[in-house]
Amino acid sequence: MVRTVYQKGFTLIETLIYVSILVVVAVFVVNALLSLADVSRHLAASQSLNRSASLSLERMMRDIREAKNINLAESTFNTSPGTLEVVVPDGAGEKTVHFSVSNGGALAVSEDGAFVGNTTRGSTEVTNLIFRQASNGTSTVIKIEMSLESVFKDVTKSASFYGSAVVRGSYY
Length: 172
Description:
Layout: H1 12-66, E1 69-70, E2 84-90, E3 93-101, E4 107-111, E5 114-118, E6 124-135, E7 140-152, E8 155-166
Antiparallel strand pairs: 1-2, 2-3, 3-4, 4-5, 6-7, 7-8
């Protein structure tokens, strides 16, 4: 009678095959995680850039639309960094709203000479801000050209944004 002997465990060749398969799978997983981290950094930089641009342009265009007039003595047109000061009705009176680029590259807003805050986020910098004034004799339009740059870790994103608004007081 022949006795069958069963061996327990793996042979050396089987072990090498399993380890090589495991290494290949690990390489794919690590590569996918690194790609995901890179995409996440790019997305964070883009979101910061777009949020800052949206908030800044909305604030400037809203105040320009509501403005009775433009304070030409305190405004700088057709150059960067430009400044803009508008006179806006405020309840029973009026207030002056001033837009400029601060030393840190943020878009700063002041009301009646008092600093209100920045409309750009900490990692986003205004690299170009130009105000242009156009008039057809009846109404005045302010055109805004703004370039922003956002840095998140080692990713830098930049884009230009444009807007225009008619000064309400110019067509009454």
